[in-house]
Specification:
It is built from nine helices and eight strands. It has about 210 residues and is of the alpha+beta class. The protein starts with 8 loop residues before the first helix and ends with a helix.
Length: about 210
């Protein structure tokens, strides 16, 4: 018979105290992501930033460097990223819904933020935390430009139904047809609808059959 595990209140309290001290001694985001703009190093770890990032670090802003200047920390405002503007023609942006600032940080320019993400014109339905807030490529969309910035007419996507077979496989199929005596009237192609169908859908189609 297994021995009953004894409750050790002093050991449990000591564990909680150790976890609390470890969390308390953990460096804050304002310490972890601080940058010396002269040496381009992080004071906490003395790690040097990549040379390619120096221009953005000097000229662009972190997310909270923008939000800390706004009333209510920019709740309701629209922010985007420089990398999105360069990479995508469709609108990509966040709409801020909630901000939790680090009041212990200098200028309160660190913290966490949540919002609705619109990426390449498609808006997510759920609020989620904004990632990469410490990157130096965030931009605030001016209020008078928000409507024009968000305006987007989706282009209908072109769906491809058939694809040609690879050369070797095509030659094998043609040889098989010639061996069976089938007339070669058309080029063999891959039907993507049949390939992408799940096993459950294929089984359902087989079980249904053709009505007589």
């Amino acid at each position: 018979m297994a021995r009953k595990k004894l409750h050790r209140p002093i050991a449990a309290m000591a564990k909680k105290i150790r976890e609390y001290r470890a969390q308390k001694d953990r460096p804050r985001d304002s310490q972890r992501f601080a940058v010396n703009y002269e040496t381009m190093r992080r004071p906490l770890t003395q790690k040097r930033l990549p040379v390619r990032a120096w221009e953005d670090v000097r000229n662009e802003n972190r997310l909270f460097a923008l939000l800390c200047r706004q009333p209510r920390f920019g709740v309701g405002r629209t922010v985007t990223r420089k990398s999105w503007l360069w990479a995508h023609d469709e609108p990509c942006y966040w709409v801020i819904t909630k901000v939790k600032a680090d009041y212990m940080a200098e200028n309160m320019d660190h913290g966490r933020a949540w919002g609705y993400l619109t990426f390449k014109g498609k808006t997510e339905e759920e609020v989620r935390e904004i990632d990469k807030a410490m990157y130096h490529d965030w931009r605030m969309v001016p209020k008078h430009e928000e409507e024009a910035f968000k305006k987007f007419t989706p282009v209908p996507e072109e769906t491809i139904r058939f694809l040609p077979y690879p050369p070797l496989l095509r030659a094998m199929i043609l040889a098989q047809w010639q061996k069976e005596g089938k007339p070669i009237m058309e080029e063999p192609v891959i039907d993507l609808e049949k390939v992408s169908a799940s096993p459950q859908e294929r089984t359902k189609k087989k079980a249904t059959g053709t009505p007589v």
